[in-house]
Design goal:
It contains four helices and no strands. It is mostly helical. It has one domain. Helix 1 (2-22) packs antiparallel against helix 2.
Length: 106
């Protein structure tokens, strides 16, 4: 269950990051409100996951999922660069998260 919560919380990261950008500095109330609700859900789910997962592993996987997801949103939604080096770096983050999962106790 902890790993499902961790994946859920990590998947919330690109969602709130997208709406954070769409809030235009918290000047648009709906995207700003979505940012606050989804980021809150992310932190709450992470806190429950960390009750049984090691801190370092949980935090690294959470930020990895968020980083990769946000980079993908940037590429597909905002037209950011998708160079080979950038994609290789994203793949390295994914590999690191998988490695942490495979070696974690809990």
């Amino acid at each position: 269950m902890a790993w499902l919560l961790l994946v859920f919380s990590g998947c919330c990261e690109p969602v709130w990051s997208y709406f954070l950008k769409e809030s235009h500095g918290f000047t648009k109330w709906l995207p700003a409100a979505i940012t606050l609700v989804v980021s809150g859900a992310s932190f709450v789910a992470l806190s429950f996951a960390l009750k049984s997962l090691p801190l370092g592993t949980g935090y690294a996987v959470w930020t990895g999922i968020g980083t990769v997801g946000t980079a993908i949103v940037g590429i597909f939604v905002f037209g950011e660069a998708a160079s080979a080096v950038r994609l290789l770096c994203i793949a390295a983050i994914v590999a690191g998260a998988i490695g942490l999962r495979l070696t974690a106790k809990g």
